[in-house]
Structure formats: C-alpha cells, structure tokens
Amino acid sequence: MLMGCGEQQTTFKGYEYKMLNTPNDVNVTISFDAEENRYFGKVVNNFFGLYMAEGNDIAFAPAASTMMMGIGEAMDVEREVLQNLLEIRSYKFDGGKLIFNLEGGRTLEFKKIGEVKKVSEAETPAED
Hints:
Blueprint: E1 15-19, E2 29-32, E3 38-42, E4 46-54, E5 57-60, E6 64-65, H1 72-87, E7 88-94, E8 97-102, E9 107-115
Antiparallel strand pairs: 1-2, 1-9, 2-3, 3-4, 4-5, 4-6, 7-8, 8-9
C-alpha cells in the first residue's frame, strides 16, 4: 500500500516495526503477517504468536520463542517486551508511529521499517 504525504496508515498487517526508546538501545522488532493474525519478532531470541484485533482493540496471546542466551541487559529487555505484549489493549497510528496502549496508561512506540518479506513457494525447498 503506497501512502502519499499526509496520509495516515490504517493497518499494521504486512509490516515490520522497530521499537523506539528501548533501554540501552537494544534492538527490538515486531512484524505482522499480512494474511493471518500472527506476529513475530526478535530481541535476543525470535518470538512468535497469535493476536486478536477488532477496531483499535488488540490482544496478544503469549509468545513462544527460541531459547538462546544473550547479554543480561538484552535478556532483561526481552523479558519485559514479552510481558508487555500481554498487557497491550489497543493501538493507534500517530505521526508515522504505531503506538500500543498498555494497561495502566503506558505506551510502546514503534517505527515502521518495511514490509514483511514472505518466502515464496518457489523458494521453499522441495520435500523428498
């Protein structure tokens, strides 16, 4: 979807986002499948799960993740991000940012960094 100047984004589906203002500038990304209500992202580990959205209300199911170890600060951020996903109640777009509203009035802000890349069927290895 192309957007001209001044057009407001209306969907997060099919896009990848980077979290803004993370502690110690730890890189946190989250992406949303364009077709299904699935999310996936990365801090130290890759994480993924399902969500339900209606209007601007959204609820994330607990994420599954890989189990690699990282430096303490990054692991702390990862634990916090995964916990915060469960506390997200709604979202909005503001000034080019995706903003999630959590319980207690807190927010998480993300900047769109691109479209989600899908592996085409042609790139999928053939089964023997």
